[in-house]
């Protein structure tokens, strides 16, 4: 269905307005191309957004990561792109501005939390459910399920279920989990369904006894029931309360909830919180995965040094993939590689294709954001690479982004410090120069799962606390539209600091930072020491896996400032 066809349908059915989030019944999870209703209707290919459609108009709501991209990919005669930090607040404001008093939506695609928020803030606008406007939600492709071996997961299903069940509040008889990555973690199950994200898209019901049932469609795997069986199983809790996460539970669950069963929504989800705290086996896996990933990316960067003339962004994507696939325990990329040169690098989540890609030009930069799924861990790294002799403006901007990166890397902070406080620490060196970036500073990274793992994040809008053994990214940036983009990203994890009750970050990523882009006179002696120490560690860890030419390149790349 095209956008014009949808608008005609709305007019014919006397539907004043309809909104479509970038999701299906697994909220916040990646979707397959054939499930992406927003892309089909508008051409926008980003991973986050919301579409508001009336018979006459359409608005695409995007956050700062996609503001430029959305304008490139949509037809301004058909779609108005609107920047937003809070999609539902912007959605309601647009409805009021355009005198929309009734708004239709698919209750599978919107959380209970967001429905309640919208109804509270915009009580004058009626939300009307309609499950048929954009069906089907899920692809009909068969789902291949496989177990995540305990030698990588670190804990058995029985151990995890018992630990999570013990944290269920005493006034609840069970826990309903509707987050796919939480179910995958709890049950040590993975799937080949999504191209770069090996999670199983499923729900689970965990009894206080520690017994769990899993629900998913399209798969044949022992013990997994169809999603249609969930309502009947919930009936066994007649007269009792079942704990659920308001932010992950689709509004439609309330419609299928049996009479006499109460969903208890609390700001406490033991599965979500326990998944964030990585066990020792998982942490060891991350370290081993990052060593292999560092070898792959560094070998590629050495190769690029001598072969970049005439190459395109798409060539970069393909060649880097070749180096990664040679590593042990490689499963897939962890997301589509971002290889962006010059002005394309200012588009935060730009991705080239074989038919739409730029040639690597001199005197600018290549922004390369990539990662991999290994059976023992997930990686995500961004390096900004000098091509020829970039301008002084680029070198100055890069150096201040590096200062922001180091500010977080060297921070000491009390346990339970909020994500938005850490975000402020990182941005301070850029703010002093009147610089900023329109994306978060860091996102959680799952273990052989989602490369973007919630609910914790280092961002201006995330107040959740951080604890020991959290894994996150550290990725400040700076983007000048039409000119260049810069981002420096390492994955890190939290460990106890020197002071009782305090935490600090340890680096997982082992890849050189391009010294050709640094104005060392803008760095303090402490910042220079941090970079030199980091590069010494990178060299010591990677050198044994390099040939003679690669070692020579690595030694120069990791030499002191």
List keywords for this structure.
about 550 residues; alpha+beta; 17 helices; about 20% strand
Walk me through what this model shows.
- The protein is an alpha+beta fold and 561 residues long.
- It is built from 17 helices and 28 strands.
- The strands form nine sheets. A six-stranded mixed beta sheet has the order 12-11-10-8-13-14. Strands 1-2-3-4 form a four-stranded mixed beta sheet, sandwiched between helices. A four-stranded antiparallel beta sheet has the order 21-28-27-24.
- Strand 2 (50-53) and strand 3 (58-62) form a beta hairpin.
- It is globular.
- The mean pLDDT is 96.
**What is the share of helical residues?**
25-40%
Give a short account of the largest sheet. 6 strands, mixed
> How far apart, in Å, are the first and last alpha carbons?
57 Å
In the sheet with the most strands, the strands line up as: 12-11-10-8-13-14
Strand portion: 15-25%
Structural class: alpha+beta
Could you say which overall geometry the principal axes of the C-alpha atoms support? globular
Radius of gyration: 24 Å
DSSP summary, beta strand count: 28
Q: List low-pLDDT spans.
A: none
Average pLDDT, to the nearest integer? Answer: 96
- Secondary structure tally, helices: 17
């Amino acid at each position: 269905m095209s956008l014009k066809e949808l608008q005609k349908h709305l007019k014919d059915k006397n539907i004043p307005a309809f909104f479509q989030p970038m999701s299906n019944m697994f909220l916040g999870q990646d979707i397959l191309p054939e499930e992406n209703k927003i892309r089909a209707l508008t051409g926008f290919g980003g991973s986050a957004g919301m579409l508001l459609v009336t018979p006459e108009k359409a608005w695409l709501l995007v956050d700062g990561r996609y503001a430029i991209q959305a304008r490139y990919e949509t037809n301004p005669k058909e779609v108005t792109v609107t920047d937003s930090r809070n999609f539902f607040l912007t959605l309601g404001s647009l409805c009021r501005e355009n005198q929309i008093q009734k708004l239709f939506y698919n209750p599978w695609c919107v959380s209970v939390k967001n429905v309640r928020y919208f109804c509270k803030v915009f009580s004058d606008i009626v939300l009307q459910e309609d499950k048929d406007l954009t069906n089907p939600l899920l692809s009909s492709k068969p789902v291949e399920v496989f177990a995540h071996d305990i030698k990588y997961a670190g804990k058995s299903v029985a151990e995890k279920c018992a630990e999570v069940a013990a944290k269920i509040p005493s006034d609840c008889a069970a826990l309903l989990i509707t987050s796919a990555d939480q179910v995958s973690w709890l049950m040590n199950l993975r799937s080949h369904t999504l191209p770069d994200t090996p999670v199983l898209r499923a729900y689970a019901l965990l009894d206080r006894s520690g017994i769990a049932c899993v629900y998913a469609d399209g798969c044949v795997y022992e013990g997994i029931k169809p999603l249609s069986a969930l309502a009947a199983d919930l009936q066994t809790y007649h007269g009792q309360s079942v704990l659920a996460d308001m932010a992950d539970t689709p509004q439609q669950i309330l419609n299928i909830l049996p009479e006499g069963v109460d969903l208890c929504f609390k700001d406490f989800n033991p599965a979500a919180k326990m998944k964030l705290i990585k066990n020792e086996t998982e942490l060891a896996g991350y370290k081993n995965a990052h060593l292999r990933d560092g070898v792959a990316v560094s070998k590629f960067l050495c190769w690029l040094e001598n072969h970049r003339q005439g190459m395109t962004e798409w060539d970069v994507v393909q060649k880097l993939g070749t180096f990664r696939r040679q590593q042990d325990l490689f499963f897939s990329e962890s997301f589509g590689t971002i290889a962006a040169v010059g002005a394309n690098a200012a588009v935060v989540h730009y991705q080239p294709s074989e038919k739409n890609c730029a040639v690597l030009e001199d005197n600018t930069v290549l922004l390369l954001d990539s990662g991999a799924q290994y059976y023992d861990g997930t990686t995500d790294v961004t390096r900004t690479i000098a091509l020829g002799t970039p301008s002084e403006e680029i070198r100055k901007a890069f150096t201040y982004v590096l200062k922001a990166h180091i500010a977080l890397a060297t921070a000491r902070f009390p346990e339970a410090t909020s994500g938005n406080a850490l975000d402020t620490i990182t941005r301070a060196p850029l703010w002093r120069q009147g610089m900023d970036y329109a994306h978060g500073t860091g996102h959680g990274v799952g273990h052989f799962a989602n490369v973007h793992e919630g609910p914790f994040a280092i961002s201006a809008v995330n107040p959740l606390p951080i604890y020991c053994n959290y894994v996150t990214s550290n990725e400040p940036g700076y983007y000048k539209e039409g000119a260049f983009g810069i981002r420096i990203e390492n994955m890190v994890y939290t460990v106890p600091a020197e002071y009782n009750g305090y935490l600090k970050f340890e680096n997982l990523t082992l890849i050189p930072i391009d010294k050709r882009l640094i104005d060392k006179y803008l760095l303090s002696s402490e910042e220079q020491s941090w970079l030199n120490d980091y590069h010494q560690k990178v060299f010591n860890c990677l050198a044994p896996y390099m040939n003679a030419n690669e070692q020579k390149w690595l030694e120069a790349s990791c030499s002191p400032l």
